[in-house]
Design brief:
Strand order of the largest sheet: 1-2-3
Shape: globular
Number of domains: 1
Radius of gyration: 16 Å
Structural class: mainly alpha
Mean pLDDT: 82
CATH topology: Rossmann fold
CATH superfamily: P-loop containing nucleotide triphosphate hydrolases
Helix content: 40-55%
CATH architecture: 3-Layer(aba) Sandwich
Largest sheet: 3 strands, parallel
CATH class: Alpha Beta
Distance between the termini: 17 Å
Low-confidence stretches: none
Number of helices: 5
Number of strands: 3
């Protein structure tokens, strides 16, 4: 999960190098999600937005990243970001058993239900 601040242009510019760094240190099929945070601030004052949603969506699509905007402060889309990520991971691994490890949908659902966030 790579998070940037939608009210801070520099944080969005930095994700490009973060994605490259993560990709250089992980397996090629590692699932990443790009999360634009602080939507609550922009709902209160739209002029605070420095990164347009469609720009971030386009970058995510071009970089093979999942994408969602969220607000940790307002607990908006936080759980959804994790669910999107887990669903994608599950869809990739549902038929793969590696070294005796079998990740089931039930185990992933149980993990999500134990989440303490928001």
């Amino acid at each position: 999960m790579i998070v940037y601040d939608i009210t801070n242009r520099e944080s969005f510019e930095n994700i490009k190098k973060w994605v490259l760094e993560v990709r250089s240190l992980t397996e090629p099929n590692t699932v990443l999600i790009l999360v634009g945070n602080k939507t609550d601030l922009c709902e209160k004052d739209p002029s605070m937005r420095k990164v347009l949603k469609n720009e971030a969506e386009t970058y995510a699509l071009d970089s093979n990243l999942l994408f969602v905007e969220a607000s940790a402060e307002g607990c908006n889309n936080v759980r959804e970001a994790f669910e999107i990520l887990l669903q994608k991971i599950y869809s990739i691994t549902k038929d793969v058993k590696s070294e005796g490890i079998d990740i089931t949908k039930m185990e992933m659902t149980q993990a999500m239900s134990q989440s303490k966030c928001c």
